[in-house]
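Holo model, NAP. Inputs:
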Amino acid sequence: MEKNKQYNLAVVGATGAVGREMIKMLEIRQFPVKSIKFFASSHSVGKKLKFNNKEIRVELLDKNSGQDIDIALFSAGAKISKIFAPYFVSKNCYVIDNSSAWRMDSNVPLIVPEVNSNFLNKKNKLIANPNCSTIQMVVVLKPIYDITKIKRIIVSTYQAVSGAGQTGIKELSEQINAWSNGKKLVNDKFQYQIAFNLIPHIDVFTDNGYTKEEMKMVNETKKILNDDNIQISATCVRVPVFRAHSESVWIETEKNLDLKQIKNVLSKSVGVCLIDNPKLNKYPMPIIAENKQNTFVGRLRKDISINKNNALTFWIVSDNLLKGAALNAVQIAEKLVSMNLV
Ligand SMILES: NC(=O)c1ccc[n+]([C@@H]2O[C@H](COP(=O)([O-])OP(=O)(O)OC[C@H]3O[C@@H](n4cnc5c(N)ncnc54)[C@H](OP(=O)(O)O)[C@@H]3O)[C@@H](O)[C@H]2O)c1
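Output:
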């Protein structure tokens, strides 16, 4: 790594739920920023956002916005990424894209730094950040996978409303306020009332009965772990939590498992925090994970429903706006720097 080198950055979708966290992560992690530009829709142009105590004006995104930018963090949805990411790349800029637009493109590395940063290179300037639920799951699965191959995964998610952006957060707040004041609860962003409810439906349904969100977990996990043979089934549920997604995960492995060894390995894994002490009622929860950079895992136990020693079940919680989005993107940018790729 070149000492003291600084970089020209851009955040596209800077006013969004993820974009704002990207800005915070760049500040908190002291990314070596020479200059930074913020882009959003026409509706935000002229707004000012702070970066390291300096006010920066939000600009309108256009074809030439990538000029003289080294790394652009995109978080403005798939449509915008499809159109504008290639323009940025054509200006020799790295794009780290948070949307689903490019994740399954075979020319686009899909990166979780703790798992597969070896796929970063100078040639593929467009890099995809995986889906939030996938990221937190693979961060925990990788250390286990390194002990024994994983054959099958069954996962159910409990996803916070911030996963649906600023409008998701607003809708839950407004419904709670309306309920507290005896008023009618209005839903617009979600299919049904989300306050005091659970909605087993995130993104659109596909022909096989799974939702797109569920299929993202299936396909992205295989790509990140570089193993097409893993069998995966996911059920994704929206829950009335503001921040941090939870997951109940069941895995079947090739070799027999030693629970003590798995706990020991997870307790030492980068980015993972093991909270697993049932006697003291200690386990991960969204209120523990919100605003934290780690992914939390607990409730580890051998499965009692099959007569073999190779199935495990556990509970993962992580802040969807941080490790599930902004933090992972900034960590990818940090890797580009430490690997001398930028
Ligand atoms: N929320 C999560 O937990 C999460 C996790 C992983 C990935 N993601 C992905 O990250 C992306 C953003 O999500 P979010 O939750 O931050 O959504 P959000 O809160 O709705 O923010 C969307 C951002 O995109 C900007 N935008 C919209 N249209 C634009 C345009 N025409 N040109 C430039 N900017 C435009 C918005 O600007 P205005 O404010 O001006 O409208 C805003 O800054 C999505 O692709 C999402 O799937 C989200």
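Residues 13-19, 39-41, 43-44, 61, 75-78, 80, 98-99, 132, 162-163, 165-167, 320-321, 324-325 surround NAP (CB under 6 Å). The mean pLDDT is 96.
Archived with the compound record.
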